[in-house]
Amino acid sequence: MKRYTSALAERATLTPADYLARLKDERRRLKELDPVMASLALSDALLPDNLRPCWYALAVFPADFDVAAAAAVWDMKPDDAHDALDTLHRYSVLEWNDQARRFHLHDLVRLFDSQCLPAAQRQAAERRYAEHFEAILRTADQSYQKGGAGITSGLALFDLERHNIVVGQIWAAAHAENDNVAARLASDYPDAGVHVLDLRLYPRDKIAWLQTAIAAARAHSDREGEAYHLSYLGLAYTDLGQPRKAIECYEQLLVIARAIRDRRAEAIALGSLRLAHADLDRPRKGIKLPEYLYAMSRAGARTAPNDPNLARAARRDTAMRIAACGPHFNLAALADRHAKGNTVGDPRPAHADLRDSRKAIEYYEHELTIARKIGDRRGEGNALGNLANAYVALGDPRKVTEYYGEALAIAREIGDRLSEANVCWNMGDEYAKAADLVRAADLMQVCVDYEREIGHPDAEKHAARVAALRARLK
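Structure (tokenized):
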């Protein structure tokens, strides 16, 4: 009834009898619609003419939004947008959350508006929507990189707008082939949030974003952009435990870097290839160190500037972050190190000798707390695995099983095959010691399957260990 009374309040000359008569007419005219949709059609008819297109355009929002977002979609000044939103709210066709200070459409209202929005206006509104939320993503990342309180505010902004940001990227990816603005945005989205996305997107999602960005860069002959995205695509495959695919990316990067004579990118490609081949335990097939050092010298640096593998070390290794914080760590100190990517120095805190299991446990508990504070699922999984290893040394099977189990769940959740294989092997080894050979063999087989898949030289040696366990079962 609220929608009816609100419309009556806005239209002083419209009597209740007139309104009910109109509603009956709408229901007769729109027999295929249910009563709610019929009432929306009447509300639509009662809206001021200049507000009707604005209301329809709000259908592009899949989630709640603020005044700035609506102003961007409408291509309107913020004050004018605020007035329009306020009027739509008074007509009860737009909902307002006073606590969050954000607007949103009811699902049925969004459906109605979507049906009324002309295709040309929809395309323009969606383009402005995607541009706005690419800028929001960049703002969140810039805040995060400032360190201190910026890390929490940057992550909070991303979390608040995550649904809108993801939909903006999806639109850009879907229209990149035929729309120059969409192609630019498809390439810009992964770069705009490179740091916060590293914490918030799972590797498979990052791969999808990067593949779209690479395709857009290639379509527009943007070799530098293609090289940039290839370097991060290689990292994403590394995070998934797929070193062969990472190597393919780095080899493509190397070809482009040499073609465009980008010495820094060449050094990054060579260094990344060395690490990727090392992941396969075949460093001799990787790039030789002299060649890497020569490439870096041509780039004019002792280490390749902005090497994504150095950035990965800074972001991934929570131990590095705690080194800056000491035993009385705090999030602000963490943020400065985490955001600036400082990887210099011994990663161990000065007070802790990690060969001492109890000190190691204290250290990794700090690591776990920090990873959870900033939502770093990979860091959380690493800390849990390290805690399990420490409790192995202390002979506490209950804690070992608990922490390995949590680490395994995270590895599978984020698609980290390498961590999954390592945890399964370690868990299996503990079950073997406890004479639970069935679970031991099943878990260790996961590691063997992974190693065979990537062609690791230890695969058959580990397979023999599993076969021996199964033989004991017989």
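The chain is about 75% helix and 0% strand. Confidence is low (pLDDT under 50) at residues 1-5, 292-297, 299-353.
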